[in-house]
Design a protein that fits this description.
The protein is built from 12 helices and 18 strands. By secondary structure, the chain is α/β, with parallel strands linked by helices. The protein is globular, with a radius of gyration of 20 Å. Bound molecules: flavin-adenine dinucleotide. The site of flavin-adenine dinucleotide (FAD) has 39 residues, from helix 1, strand 12, strand 16 and helix 7.
């Protein structure tokens, strides 16, 4: 009998497992893929995410420190240099492997097998993998957003709440990457409906990708291939596709003995698609609720923690995304007149400003009523 079984060894699952094991709970992680595994991702670890890891990331995992952003919006290109690092680029296979290792060092066990189903037996849960049955007091589902296990708690997401992302890694010499982007993130708005394209300068490769709302992003592979060739990359790269939740915390994130964390709980920034921060935070909060609360209060306590600590950011990120993509002309105007808007926005991933503070600042600079009328839609 375990205290906690965690499904998925991404950032949410490994963090839940490490935190719970560190609190003295008996924890098993069940992961369907052998590690280290490839994970489709831009690999941008914001400072706010890095600051909740609970340990210093080894230098060998930091592929590049990001101190600037190049933003393409319609016919404008704006470079913003901050005097400090606001993001670190990591390779997800190495990063996730390291987080898993940390969880195991804290005392969690890992088994590489796919979870097929679970059932509630009253006093405990029965969790079924391909070959075994695990018994546990609690279950954290951190298996991402493409997995149906979470649907029994959260319900099935609507197409309007799902984003599609395509990504490829384009090999390049480090000196060419340095000359082209150095320590800049390259972001292209307007190429994918309800989203953007990116070129991130990793070590020995660029992460190139596009992402947008599934309901509006028709022909994503075509858009991706055009984005690659317009930016001087070959069109014949291996392209990986993956979905992300873009609807905010719409459904339940816990019920009884089952808690959802990370992408499974729908916790991704609706404007940037940043999910690692929310995965780390929610994984830790899930473990703390299990370790600190009376059994009957765990689900309610976790839902309240998520709403209190993450709900506001998620709501504002969605509002910003809707406002920008519904009124691109207003944002074009804004960038021309107040290009410090990018400077300000970067302070959110840098953990120097909250979404709320940013939106308050923005509200006085956007055309009157634009945020309110977007919110009321
Ligand atoms: C193309 C793309 C680019 C992105 N870029 C960024 C970025 O630059 N920065 C950022 O912050 N966020 C980014 N995101 C979002 C980020 O990747 C996710 O939010 C984050 O990985 C969520 O972590 P997680 O632990 O919830 O889930 P995941 O990282 O998806 O991990 C889930 C794990 O569960 C396992 N699993 C699934 N089903 C089962 C099962 N039945 N049994 C056992 N194991 C199972 C999977 O194999 C996987 O290892 C990006 C997403 C995409 C798709």
């Amino acid at each position: 009998m375990y205290d906690l079984v965690v499904v998925g060894a991404g950032p949410a699952g490994s963090t839940a497992a490490r935190t719970a094991a560190g609190m003295g709970l008996k924890v098993a992680i069940l992961e369907k893929k052998d590690f280290p595994r490839y994970k489709a991702c831009g690999g941008a670890l914001s400072e706010r995410a890095a600051s909740c890891l609970g340990f210093r990331l080894p230098e060998s995992l930091c592929e590049r420190s990001i101190t600037g952003a190049r933003i393409h919006f319609r016919d404008q290109v704006l470079d913003k240099i901050k005097g400090y690092r606001f993001t670190t680029l990591v390779s997800r296979s190495a990063f996730d492997q390291y987080l898993l290792q940390k969880a195991v060092e804290a005392g969690a066990s890992i088994s590489f097998s796919r979870v097929l189903d679970y059932s509630d037996k009253g006093d405990y849960l029965s969790i079924h993998t391909e070959g075994e049955i695990y018994k546990s007091r609690f279950l954290v589902i951190a298996s991402g957003c493409q997995n149906a296990l979470k649907d029994r708690i959260a319900g099935k997401a609507s197409r309007d709440d799902i984003g599609i992302c395509l990504v490829t890694e384009v090999k390049a010499e480090d000196r060419d990457i340095e000359a082209r982007l150095g320590s800049f993130l390259d972001i292209h708005f307007g190429i994918a409906s309800g989203g953007y394209g990116w070129i991130f300068p990793h070590r020995g490769y660029y992460s190139v990708g596009i992402g947008g709302l599934a309901s509006r992003l028709l022909h994503p592979r075509q858009i991706m291939r055009s984005f690659l060739s317009e930016n001087g990359f070959g069109r014949d790269q291996i392209i990986h596709g993956h979905t992300i939740p873009l609807g905010g915390m719409v459904g339940r994130v816990a019920r009884g003995r089952v808690l959802l964390a990370g992408d499974s709980a729908g916790l991704v920034d609706g404007f940037t698609g940043e999910g690692i921060y929310y995965a780390l935070r929610s994984g830790e909060m899930a473990a703390r609720a299990i370790g600190e609360e009376e059994e009957g209060d765990v689900a309610r306590s976790y839902e309240m923690r998520c709403k209190k600590e993450l709900g506001e950011d998620l709501r504002y990120s969605l509002l910003l995304s809707h406002a920008m993509h519904s009124h691109p002309e207003a944002f074009s105007w804004l960038l021309e007149r107040h290009n410090e808007v990018i400077d300000r926005y970067i302070e959110i991933p840098a953990a120097r400003m909250s979404y709320k503070e940013f939106m308050r600042w923005l509200a006085f600079r956007l055309p009157r009523g634009l945020l309110t009328c977007t919110e009321n839609k």
